[in-house]
């Protein structure tokens, strides 16, 4: 009864956005309360589960470095956030199809002791592994791990605090351009903490079952294609998950906030190359629109699902189910 009410309620809310619909998105979980940590739905034959690893708080001065306060403040109000408090989850997504269990990104990781780095303590208590366990998924069950880029919030869960691989049977997929950048002198000026995460979680993969993807569109597995989306980092990928006519586009950090879809000229401090980041945003928006894709965004309000539509010469985002 409660479930029926929810579905009815969300359908009514979605009705307010003519471009939003639930085709291909069968809701299996509950609603979207703030505390929700696991959300499951289906894309065609693929069962998708979004896990909330952590919550983080970003600031407008980093997210929107060139937005004027007069334009930014009313925009942020529409999303019920303030310039000094933009809450953002870190997520990971599990795809289950046949005998495959594919994890996209791995969260921040977990350590009992705070990580002390240059005198600053970092408390890392990511919940991904706890939540996988809760869903009866063991690390050994994961057949594939797709790593969209090498920032700490996406790679921290690959190894334990003691350096043991969390997914011992997996094949690891990432783009060769991301690998090359972070293993060259080009990344020498990156924060030491980022480099620490990479040395601990990424570099050891070279002796394991590593698959480096190449080019603009690369098939990873049947129904799963990596789409190069550089700019945030040099080798970031988005993931196009397709089953029948249904598509899910995991956009990773190509967009950190829905306002980056609505305002392609607003830049973030977290992108290495603003021009390429903008080109990748346009590419992903056109792709999602052409194939009417459901979108999953890493840093948007959990579980980060929604759709985009054209509005005049620009784009509008609408959360699905909200
Ligand atoms: Zn991120």
TrEMBL record:
Question: What name does UniProt use for this protein?
Answer: MBL fold metallo-hydrolase
* Organism the protein comes from: Rufibacter hautae
Q: According to its UniProt record, which protein family does this protein belong to?
A: Belongs to the metallo-beta-lactamase superfamily.
- Residues covered by the Metallo-beta-lactamase domain: 89-299
Keywords, A to Z, come to:
Hydrolase, Metal-binding, Zinc
MF (Gene Ontology): hydrolase activity; metal ion binding
Question: InterPro entries in the record, alphabetically?
Answer: MBL_superfamily_lactonases, Metallo-B-lactamas, RibonucZ/Hydroxyglut_hydro
Q: Where is the signal peptide?
A: none
On whether Chaperone is a keyword of this UniProt record, the answer is: no
The record's section on PANTHER family has:
QUORUM-QUENCHING LACTONASE YTNP-RELATED-RELATED
């Amino acid at each position: 009864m409660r479930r029926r009410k929810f579905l009815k309620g969300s359908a009514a809310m979605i009705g307010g956005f003519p471009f939003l619909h639930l085709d291909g998105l069968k809701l299996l979980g509950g609603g979207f309360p703030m505390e929700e940590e696991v959300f499951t739905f289906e894309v065609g034959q693929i069962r998708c589960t979004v896990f909330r690893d952590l919550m983080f708080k970003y600031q407008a001065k980093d997210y929107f470095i060139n937005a004027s306060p007069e334009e930014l403040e009313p925009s942020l109000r529409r999303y019920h956030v303030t310039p000094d408090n933009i809450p953002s989850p870190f997520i990971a997504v599990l795809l289950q199809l046949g005998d495959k269990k594919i994890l996209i990104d791995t969260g921040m990781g977990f350590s009992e002791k705070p990580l002390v780095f240059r005198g600053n303590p970092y408390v890392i208590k990511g919940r991904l592994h706890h939540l996988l366990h809760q869903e009866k998924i063991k690390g050994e069950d994961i057949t594939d791990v797709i790593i969209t880029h090498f920032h700490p919030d996406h790679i921290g869960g690959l190894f334990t605090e003691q350096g043991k691989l969390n997914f011992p049977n997996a094949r690891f997929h990432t783009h060769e351009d991301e690998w090359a950048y972070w293993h060259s002198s080009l990344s020498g000026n990156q924060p030491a903490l980022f480099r620490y995460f990479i040395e601990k979680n990424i570099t050891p993969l070279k002796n394991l079952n590593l698959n480096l993807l190449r080019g603009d569109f690369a098939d990873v597995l049947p129904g799963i294609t990596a789409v190069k989306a550089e700019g945030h980092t040099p080798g970031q990928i988005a993931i196009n998950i397709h089953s029948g006519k249904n598509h899910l586009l995991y956009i990773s950090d190509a967009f950190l906030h829905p306002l980056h879809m609505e305002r392609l000229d607003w830049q973030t401090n977290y992108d290495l190359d603003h021009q390429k980041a903008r080109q990748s945003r346009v590419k992903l928006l056109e792709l999602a629109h052409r194939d009417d894709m459901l979108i999953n965004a890493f840093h948007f309000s959990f579980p980060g699902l929604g759709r985009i539509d054209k509005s005049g010469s620009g784009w509008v985002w609408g959360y699905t189910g909200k």
